[in-house]
Amino acid sequence: MRLCSAFAVLFSNATHAQSRPAPAADRPQVKNRMNFVGIQVRGFSWVDEGVNQVLDNLQKKGDVNTIWAYTFSYGEARLRKNGPIPLPDHGKPGDTIAGGALYDYDPKYFRNTILKDFRCDVYGNFNVIEAVAPKAHDRGMDFFAWDLNNPGAGLNRTIPNYVEVSEIDLYGRRTASPCFNNPDYRAFLSGKVESLLLGYPDLIDGIAWGSERTGPFENLVGRMVPATCFCQFCRAKAEDRGVSVSRAQAGYRELEQLFRAAAADEPNADGYFVSFWRILLRYPEILSWETLWTDSYQELEAQLYGEAKALAPEKPFGFHIMQSFTFSPFYRAEEDYTKRRNFADFLKPATYNNAGGPRMAAYLNRLSRTIFHDAKPEDFNDFYYRIMGDPQAPYDQLATTGLTADYVARETKRAVEEVAGMVKIYPGIDIDVPTLTNAKIPEKRTAPDDVHKSIRAAFSAGADGVVLSREYAEMWLANLAAAGDALREVFAEKPHA
Ligand SMILES: [Zn+2]
Question: How far is the CA of 228 from the centre of ligand 1 (A)?
Fold first, then answer.
């Protein structure tokens, strides 16, 4: 059954609504847990270490009460013993990479999509919901499906027809990123939500949904990725909005040429920022295309939320927000928390402060290779910190020092204030989010004291809970235990609702 309830329609329009809070009576009654402590767990962790052993570590060391178990992933890579990201003191080394669903689903939920066959069978018939949820429940823990829909080139190979729903770039090429306006992809994502909530009504306690994606403008500025998406569905949507497809393409082509010239250090008489701005003036369609992409992404999220609420109003349904929104002023402008009030029960902003150091340094470096090419990162890092409201170490020390615990507090506070009590905020706490040990300058690694400080920072800024991040498989047990100690300390001082 495809869901097309008034609820879904209501929420699918949410992104265009005013940012006024909806009346409390209209909100579904969601059973949010007090003192929420989540953790993300890859499929192979259960298989390699055993379900009971993993649950023991999470509960006893990490004080975790809510499992975010990958029920779908774009690929799973085990760590290697001597790799750039070392295997911690648990788990098994290896290089298995597999994508797809780690649970069994009824094909009836996927009747309206060409994406029907996406079961990951690398671990035999391991069904993470059936294997883990009952044992988690026996321990008083909740089980959330972590439905992470990042792009993954591997899925184009393993899921029949997956390539058919992918975005088409400026040059007419298929990509590894599915298109949010493709009806088959949308039906696939809806089908997954239905298959989880209706297929496992007693085992799934909530859904965390994620898709780490940014629009064509951000992709070009930040990563030199050619603009998308120019498929028939996006073209039709642009036409409805009165946006010229050919002018958007011409604009992105010029912008890409400018950034290629910057990368080659070619001289620019007017300066790169002026040239960048001139292209925007000539082709406002560049920003219209970015907005079309962002609206499509957020409309889809609102639709999935509406569908989930129609099926199981009491079960929390929320979203992961990728860390780029804390680095990029452009992406931050698009991820407007006030809009999220209407279509999320909880949000997990990825506030990874240790890995945030090298990541922010990389972002500053990218700005200096594109729109700010006439300046070096160290020339504008103070200015950048001021406009982002977040003072940090000088550029040349960022990768080594990481970001401060204040970064976690500031981002948490901003989120808490902007959702105005209508959405729970669970910041992602950095526990060994990978940094490179073989970089020229050694990058920041997590220490127990870092974990302690960032957890205290999150709660002091008003967090409703935390999600220990990124993956259990990456965490050293001493750092996981530091999280548990800090959490017990915080909850003993003041129980949080
Ligand atoms: Zn498209």
Answer: 7
Q: Ligand 1 centroid to 165 CA: how many Å?
A: 8
Q: What contacts 460, CB < 8 A, 6 or more positions away?
A: 409
Ligand 1: distance of its center to the CA of 177 in Å?
10
Q: Is the peptide bond before 470 cis (omega within 30 degrees of 0)?
A: yes
Query: Rounded distance, CA 340 to CA 418, Å?
Result: 9
pLDDT for 85: 81
- Strand-pairing partners, residue 468, are 39, 429
Kindly give the distance from the C-alpha atom of residue 230 to the centroid of ligand 1, in angstroms, as a whole number. Answer: 5
pTM for the full model?
0.94
Element (H, E) at 320: strand 317-321
Contact 93, 81 (CB under 8 A): yes
Output the average pLDDT for the chain: 92
pLDDT in tens, 274-300: 999 999 999 999 999 999 999 999 999
Supply 170's token pair.
């400026």
The CA 236 to ligand 1 mean position distance, Å, reads 9
Question: Which residues of the chain are under the pLDDT cut of 70?
Answer: 1-28, 495-497
What pLDDT digit, counting tens, does each position of 30-67 carry? 988 999 999 999 999 999 999 999 999 999 999 999 99
If phi > 0 it is left, if psi is from -120 to 50 it is alpha, else beta; for residue 155 that is alpha
- State the alpha helices, DSSP H only, in 21-74: 43-49, 51-56
Q: Cα 470–203–118 angle (5° rounding)?
A: 65
HEC sequence for 180-191: CCCHHHHHHHHH
